[in-house]
Design a protein that fits this description.
This protein is mainly alpha-helical and about 210 residues long. It has one domain. Helix content is about 85%, strand content about 0%. The protein has seven helices and no strands. α2 crosses α7 and α4 (about 70-90) crosses α7 (about 145-205).
Length: about 210
Protein backbone atom coordinates (compact mmCIF):
# COMPACT_ATOMS: atom_id res chain seq x y z
CA UNK A 1 0.00 0.00 0.00
CA UNK A 2 2.68 2.47 1.03
CA UNK A 3 4.90 1.36 -1.85
CA UNK A 4 2.13 2.06 -4.34
CA UNK A 5 1.51 5.43 -2.74
CA UNK A 6 5.24 6.22 -2.84
CA UNK A 7 5.52 5.39 -6.55
CA UNK A 8 2.36 7.34 -7.39
CA UNK A 9 3.51 10.36 -5.38
CA UNK A 10 7.02 10.35 -6.82
CA UNK A 11 5.89 10.06 -10.42
CA UNK A 12 3.18 12.70 -9.98
CA UNK A 13 5.43 15.35 -8.44
CA UNK A 14 8.33 14.66 -10.81
CA UNK A 15 6.05 15.12 -13.80
CA UNK A 16 4.35 18.24 -12.41
CA UNK A 17 7.49 20.00 -11.15
CA UNK A 18 9.64 18.74 -14.09
CA UNK A 19 13.17 19.44 -12.74
CA UNK A 20 14.86 18.86 -16.11
CA UNK A 21 12.46 21.20 -17.88
CA UNK A 22 13.25 23.95 -15.37
CA UNK A 23 16.98 23.98 -16.19
CA UNK A 24 16.74 26.28 -19.24
CA UNK A 25 14.48 28.70 -17.37
CA UNK A 26 16.92 28.75 -14.44
CA UNK A 27 19.69 29.57 -16.90
CA UNK A 28 17.67 32.41 -18.37
CA UNK A 29 16.54 34.15 -15.18
CA UNK A 30 20.03 33.92 -13.64
CA UNK A 31 21.86 34.93 -16.83
CA UNK A 32 25.13 36.74 -16.12
CA UNK A 33 25.26 35.97 -12.40
CA UNK A 34 28.41 34.40 -10.90
CA UNK A 35 28.41 30.67 -10.23
CA UNK A 36 28.40 31.14 -6.44
CA UNK A 37 25.40 33.46 -6.63
CA UNK A 38 23.58 30.98 -8.85
CA UNK A 39 24.27 28.27 -6.29
CA UNK A 40 22.73 30.42 -3.55
CA UNK A 41 19.69 31.10 -5.72
CA UNK A 42 19.29 27.38 -6.45
CA UNK A 43 19.52 26.43 -2.77
CA UNK A 44 17.13 29.17 -1.70
CA UNK A 45 14.59 28.44 -4.45
CA UNK A 46 14.51 24.72 -3.66
CA UNK A 47 14.17 25.41 0.07
CA UNK A 48 11.33 27.88 -0.46
CA UNK A 49 9.48 25.61 -2.89
CA UNK A 50 9.93 22.59 -0.59
CA UNK A 51 8.57 24.49 2.42
CA UNK A 52 5.60 25.73 0.39
CA UNK A 53 4.68 22.21 -0.74
CA UNK A 54 5.15 20.73 2.73
CA UNK A 55 3.08 23.57 4.18
CA UNK A 56 0.44 22.89 1.55
CA UNK A 57 0.35 19.24 2.58
CA UNK A 58 -0.09 20.23 6.23
CA UNK A 59 -2.56 23.12 6.15
CA UNK A 60 -3.16 24.00 2.50
CA UNK A 61 -6.69 22.68 2.12
CA UNK A 62 -7.80 24.16 5.46
CA UNK A 63 -6.24 27.56 4.71
CA UNK A 64 -7.82 27.84 1.26
CA UNK A 65 -11.23 27.01 2.68
CA UNK A 66 -10.82 29.57 5.46
CA UNK A 67 -9.83 32.30 3.02
CA UNK A 68 -12.41 31.33 0.44
CA UNK A 69 -9.71 31.01 -2.24
CA UNK A 70 -9.86 28.33 -4.92
CA UNK A 71 -6.96 26.72 -6.77
CA UNK A 72 -8.15 28.32 -10.04
CA UNK A 73 -7.36 31.71 -8.52
CA UNK A 74 -3.76 30.51 -7.97
CA UNK A 75 -3.51 29.51 -11.61
CA UNK A 76 -4.76 32.86 -12.88
CA UNK A 77 -2.62 34.95 -10.52
CA UNK A 78 0.48 32.86 -11.15
CA UNK A 79 -0.06 33.06 -14.90
CA UNK A 80 -0.38 36.85 -14.88
CA UNK A 81 2.76 37.32 -12.80
CA UNK A 82 4.72 34.84 -14.89
CA UNK A 83 3.68 36.65 -18.06
CA UNK A 84 5.35 39.84 -16.78
CA UNK A 85 8.65 38.01 -16.36
CA UNK A 86 8.30 36.39 -19.80
CA UNK A 87 7.68 39.75 -21.49
CA UNK A 88 10.88 41.16 -19.97
CA UNK A 89 12.82 38.16 -21.23
CA UNK A 90 11.48 38.50 -24.78
CA UNK A 91 11.98 42.26 -24.97
CA UNK A 92 15.43 42.10 -23.39
CA UNK A 93 14.68 44.69 -20.72
CA UNK A 94 15.76 42.65 -17.72
CA UNK A 95 18.31 44.36 -15.53
CA UNK A 96 21.91 43.75 -16.55
CA UNK A 97 23.19 41.11 -14.14
CA UNK A 98 26.80 41.99 -14.76
CA UNK A 99 26.59 45.60 -13.61
CA UNK A 100 28.33 46.47 -10.36
CA UNK A 101 25.94 46.30 -7.46
CA UNK A 102 26.24 46.88 -3.74
CA UNK A 103 26.34 43.65 -1.72
CA UNK A 104 22.99 44.30 -0.06
CA UNK A 105 21.34 45.05 -3.41
CA UNK A 106 22.75 41.84 -4.88
CA UNK A 107 21.51 39.85 -1.91
CA UNK A 108 18.03 41.30 -2.32
CA UNK A 109 18.16 40.46 -6.04
CA UNK A 110 19.11 36.85 -5.21
CA UNK A 111 16.19 36.54 -2.81
CA UNK A 112 13.76 37.97 -5.34
CA UNK A 113 14.78 35.57 -8.13
CA UNK A 114 14.74 32.57 -5.80
CA UNK A 115 11.23 33.37 -4.55
CA UNK A 116 9.81 34.53 -7.90
CA UNK A 117 9.66 33.16 -10.50
CA UNK A 118 11.67 30.05 -9.53
CA UNK A 119 10.02 28.87 -6.30
CA UNK A 120 6.67 30.43 -7.20
CA UNK A 121 5.07 29.72 -9.63
CA UNK A 122 7.52 27.48 -11.52
CA UNK A 123 8.44 24.92 -8.84
CA UNK A 124 5.67 25.28 -6.27
CA UNK A 125 3.10 26.57 -8.73
CA UNK A 126 -0.61 25.89 -9.13
CA UNK A 127 0.03 22.46 -10.62
CA UNK A 128 2.34 21.32 -7.83
CA UNK A 129 0.06 22.76 -5.14
CA UNK A 130 -2.99 21.08 -6.66
CA UNK A 131 -1.13 17.77 -6.99
CA UNK A 132 0.02 17.99 -3.36
CA UNK A 133 -3.54 18.61 -2.15
CA UNK A 134 -4.77 15.62 -4.15
CA UNK A 135 -1.98 13.41 -2.79
CA UNK A 136 -2.85 14.45 0.77
CA UNK A 137 -6.41 13.34 0.05
CA UNK A 138 -5.12 9.97 -1.19
CA UNK A 139 -3.16 9.55 2.05
CA UNK A 140 -6.45 9.41 3.91
CA UNK A 141 -4.97 10.76 7.13
CA UNK A 142 -2.40 7.95 7.36
CA UNK A 143 0.63 9.42 9.21
CA UNK A 144 3.06 7.07 7.43
CA UNK A 145 1.67 8.10 4.05
CA UNK A 146 2.15 11.75 4.96
CA UNK A 147 5.77 11.01 5.92
CA UNK A 148 6.22 9.38 2.50
CA UNK A 149 4.76 12.48 0.85
CA UNK A 150 7.13 14.78 2.75
CA UNK A 151 10.08 12.57 1.78
CA UNK A 152 9.09 12.64 -1.88
CA UNK A 153 8.79 16.44 -1.82
CA UNK A 154 12.31 16.68 -0.40
CA UNK A 155 13.60 14.23 -3.03
CA UNK A 156 12.02 16.20 -5.90
CA UNK A 157 13.50 19.45 -4.59
CA UNK A 158 16.89 17.73 -4.36
CA UNK A 159 16.53 16.67 -8.00
CA UNK A 160 15.79 20.29 -8.94
CA UNK A 161 18.89 21.41 -7.05
CA UNK A 162 21.13 18.93 -8.87
CA UNK A 163 19.76 20.08 -12.24
CA UNK A 164 20.29 23.74 -11.34
CA UNK A 165 23.87 23.16 -10.21
CA UNK A 166 24.65 21.41 -13.51
CA UNK A 167 23.12 24.23 -15.57
CA UNK A 168 26.40 26.19 -15.62
CA UNK A 169 27.93 23.55 -17.87
CA UNK A 170 25.01 23.91 -20.27
CA UNK A 171 25.52 27.67 -20.43
CA UNK A 172 29.22 27.29 -21.27
CA UNK A 173 28.35 24.99 -24.15
CA UNK A 174 25.84 27.48 -25.57
CA UNK A 175 28.14 30.51 -25.58
CA UNK A 176 27.08 34.18 -25.60
CA UNK A 177 25.00 34.08 -28.79
CA UNK A 178 23.33 30.83 -27.82
CA UNK A 179 22.36 32.24 -24.44
CA UNK A 180 20.81 35.34 -25.99
CA UNK A 181 18.79 33.26 -28.44
CA UNK A 182 17.77 30.86 -25.67
CA UNK A 183 16.63 33.73 -23.45
CA UNK A 184 14.32 35.12 -26.16
CA UNK A 185 13.01 31.70 -27.15
CA UNK A 186 12.29 30.64 -23.58
CA UNK A 187 10.65 33.99 -22.96
CA UNK A 188 8.11 33.16 -25.65
CA UNK A 189 7.61 29.64 -24.25
CA UNK A 190 7.25 31.03 -20.73
CA UNK A 191 4.67 33.55 -21.97
CA UNK A 192 2.70 30.71 -23.54
CA UNK A 193 2.92 28.74 -20.29
CA UNK A 194 1.68 31.79 -18.38
CA UNK A 195 -1.29 32.17 -20.72
CA UNK A 196 -2.06 28.47 -20.32
CA UNK A 197 -2.08 28.92 -16.53
CA UNK A 198 -4.68 31.66 -16.91
CA UNK A 199 -6.79 29.62 -19.36
CA UNK A 200 -6.72 26.57 -17.07
CA UNK A 201 -7.67 28.74 -14.11
CA UNK A 202 -10.61 30.28 -15.96
CA UNK A 203 -11.80 26.86 -17.18
CA UNK A 204 -11.60 25.40 -13.68
CA UNK A 205 -13.43 28.39 -12.22
CA UNK A 206 -16.23 28.18 -14.80
CA UNK A 207 -16.50 24.40 -14.40
CA UNK A 208 -16.78 24.78 -10.63
Amino acid sequence: MLLDYFVSTLVTLLVVVDPVGLAPIFLTVTHGLPAQVRKRIALRACAIAGLILIGTALVGDWLLRQLGIGVPAFRIAGGLLLFLVASEMVLGVRIDRQSKQAEDALEEHVRNIAAFPLAIPLMAGPGAITATLLLVGQAGGNPLALVVLFGVIVAVMAACLVVYLLSNRIEKLLGVTGNVVLQRLLGVILAALAVQFVIDGIRAALAG
